[in-house]
Write a structure and sequence with these properties.
Keywords: Methyltransferase, Transferase. The chain is an alpha/beta fold. The chain has helices at about 5-15, 35-50, 65-75, 165-170, 185-200, 260-265, 275-280, 280-300; strands at about 1-5, 55-60, 85-90, 100-105, 120-125, 135-140, 145-150, 155-160, 180-185, 205-210, 210, 225, 230, 240-245, 245, 255-260, 305-314. Helix content is about 30%, strand content about 25%.
Amino acid sequence: MRTWQQAWSEALYGEGGFYRRVEGPAGHFATSTHGRAGELLADALLRLVDREGLRQVVDVGCGRGELLTALAASSRHTHPDLGLLGVDVVDRPAHLVPRIDWLVSPGGPDLPDLGTPTDTLVLAHEWLDVVPCGIARADGTGVLRTVCVDEDGGEHLGEPLADADSAWVARWWPGPHPPGAVVEVGRPRDEAFDRLVARTGSGLVVAVDYGHRAGTRPLHGTLMGYRTGSACPPLPDGSCDLTAHVAMDSLRSDAVRTQREMLRGLGVDGARPPVEQAHGDPAGYLAALSGASHAAALTGSGPGDFLWATRRVP
């Protein structure tokens, strides 16, 4: 029986793993990078690019390039020279426009050589939540032990946490941990984020994810599976996505803000168009109303509570 971290990694990124499936992640769930919401997010990111004086966007864990496609369309006239690079575990999808470059990643916390890009927005949108991490549960005496799992999801407690993981817990998820409490040991996510920063020559590195901060750590953990649009038991057999929220403050970023705060600061507020517009420009009014609805969804309860961790690379 393997540790959850080992089983999780194989289930998502091994041969035949979930993220290598033909239908891609979008065949099972939608994120803020998909559809009309993705177009609004792309527009906001272009404003961030302008504000920071950047020349390229690198999208890490980009699925099949949905957000990059939206960025290419939105920037066609306003930012024709903006570089666009996708990084994911599959080969470059054939449907992408020629302007979008691509690098194949090993998956999980491992990254290809990004070429030390400069003046670049490096975006990791819902990447860290699928970087497998150790799962620990407190035994009857409150000692945190590594959780092991079989392919059917059956679990048992293994050895006490290793020293490095214990040190991470003491710093970022301190006890006491009552019997049965679960800790998702975020050290692999911290290290992955540090590697991403180290491979960036200059610019802004942004991790966007489900997350929590000190004082709001979940008592029973957040590990969950998703399949064909619905939550399901987390089975490490390659049939479903496996995700757990990120301890965003442990990334040691320059700032952590909610998506609501970030997007409103970039002009996405969900304000409805004036109803008078419907009389003189009904088509424009309906388009603006649709955009406002999606903007409200991006900044409302749920997606609006996503956390953005940002770190500048001078």
